[in-house]
Amino acid sequence: MTEISVEKAFRPIFVVGNSRSGTTLMGTVLGRHAAVFRFEELHFFEELWSATDSEESCSEEEAIALIAKLFDIQRNGYLTRGDWQDFLEEAKNLVNSLTPQLSPAKAFQAFLDYETQLQNKTRACDQTPQNILYIKEILTHYPNASIVHMVRDPRAILLSQKNRWRRPFLSDSIPKKEAVRYWLNYHPITMSQLWKANVQTVDGFIEDERVYTLRYEDLLNSPEEAVEKVCEFAGITFSPEMLKVPQVNSSSQKDQPKREGINKDRADSWKKGGLTATEMFLCQRINQTLMDIHGYAAEPLSPNPLMVAISVLLFPIKLSLAILFSLKRMKNLGEAIKRRLK
Prior knowledge:
The protein has a single domain (13-341), classed as Rossmann fold (3-Layer(aba) Sandwich), CATH 3.40.50.300. The chain is 48% helix and 9% strand. It has 15 helices and 7 strands. Helix 10 (188-203) packs parallel to helix 13 and helix 13 (277-293) crosses helix 14 (305-324). The N and C termini lie far apart (45 Å). The longest helix is centred in the C-terminal third of the chain and has 20 residues, at 305-324. The chain is of the alpha/beta class. 39% of the residues are buried.
């Protein structure tokens, strides 16, 4: 087994934000740095860990199972993972090299360090968007972490989420069955409430020097300046090579991995159409205050009252189906919902 040592000064980078807010793009940019290893979306917090595990130690068997599942996600992909038991031996070897007193958080750190060092890198970068709801826990367990928060106009996120069901047909790496879950997840009230909960969570850490907020639009319009500031925040040196990212992950265009560079056309795509007056009205009604704070001006709208009423009536039905299709992604359903509704 390759000898891997857990760093004394563990300095991971977490890229967080609403889904479809540019977290994958920023993770990809950072992953092009010579010192940074970009992980797949790991979904450790919430799916493999909950607040009830915060202070709990775990047995050797539990730590092995946890790390084996993380190996599976990282090596095979979150949406295409295989049998995590295939990684039990490697996980066992890693756990045996650690101190006897383990917790899920320490096991996660050991996994990140192990994979990062295998790639001859020194900084781990987890780009799971929903980690935005676990900033307090991240900073508690990993006090030297750097958190890059991506924020995007909520109306642009609505449009991207509305079209997200198309992603499996635009990319070869996403199972086609995900189209159903993406379609069920979308409702303007659901997406708007999630944006509000996520942004409010980060705004609570506005004075914390370990948290940096970047508008997605600023990244697209001034990529070099934006990435330089992120690098300075994270304590790494900027390189122009970081901007040569493949143009993928669009909800409306087929992936073009051979085309490099940050596509500025995505900045205000919602203004070109695709959202109804009802969708925009509900979004602005829920998020007006936070939109003002983050520089997103509201549009004057006069939606059809009947269409607004229908959308509101359909909301609990769509939300229930979305939760039903996402149960396996939440270790503690009550906690996950509470974090999204606060």
